[in-house]
Amino acid sequence: MKQSVDKIFFVGFLLNIFFKNRFLRNLSWKIFGVDVHREKFLNKVKEIIALRTREIENGSETQSNDVLSLMIRENFINNQLTEGEIYSNSLVLFIAGTDTSSNTLSWFFYEVGRRPDIQKRIREEIDRILPNGKAPTLEDYNSLIYLNACIMETLRCHPPVGSVFKEASKSTHLGPILIPKDSIVHSFIAYSNKNNQIWNNANIFDPERFMDEEYLKKTNSDYSMLPFSMGIRKCIGYKFSLVETCCVLARMLQSYEIELLNDEVNDPVGYVGQITFRPGNLKIRMTKRVQ
């Protein structure tokens, strides 16, 4: 399934850029085998939905709390979603919410693993807000201020998607620059997030910059912080992703200490990926906390 997703996103993505004509685009997908992987992936998603639906209908499903199960179970009660809507929502979760979130977690472990002082402060906040191993909930999200600042700084330094491409639906100007109709505009998120004209000490991992609420509001409205893009095309699941990441990390840091094992001079961590970017050669040790 992952092989199919990689084929669709990487090869299909490049073909869509080079072939603007719909006929040539569809033909190129057939020649390079992208359409086969697309059908394989779509059929697999349909199989998963059908299997989970049957399990819930006959009572063999064990009250799973994953998003797909909750969506299907709730729909049995309220019947507000069509099969097509469940399918399309599931596609979003399968495609957009897996590699991006897991890559953010990996980069977070890299950054806090090399900064014991930051990790200690995060853990002190977690122990204060979630005493005695209390599981985090949505209500705790806004109280975990420093943890969320570290997540935002991770997204700034290591956006899971390094760039986005937009097609101009009509000719327009970007300042003095003419953007002709049908042009592909490449927005390099990774560069914007490391621009020293926008961020002080842009190459330094400094969660303190996101502790200022007014500054945080500014970065969310002036296009200086773009890990989820911006405007009407902003990632529809960005809030879910932030809450999910916060809760997962809070739970993990309640129980484990993280240590980076890489020698950053002789054995550095690099970037690996095509559309999304994960840390390559990352070596960490997770040790059970002594309470």
TrEMBL record:
| UniProt binding sites for heme | C235
UniProt keyword Heme present: yes
Give the protein's cofactors.
heme
Would I find Iron among this entry's keywords? yes
Give one Pfam family, short name only: p450
**Secretion signal span:** none
Q: Which domain of life is it from?
A: Eukaryota
- Which controlled-vocabulary keywords does the entry list? Heme, Iron, Metal-binding, Monooxygenase, Oxidoreductase
Identify a single GO molecular function assigned to this protein.
oxidoreductase activity, acting on paired donors, with incorporation or reduction of molecular oxygen
Q: Which family does it belong to?
A: Belongs to the cytochrome P450 family.
Please give the name of this protein.
Answer: Predicted protein
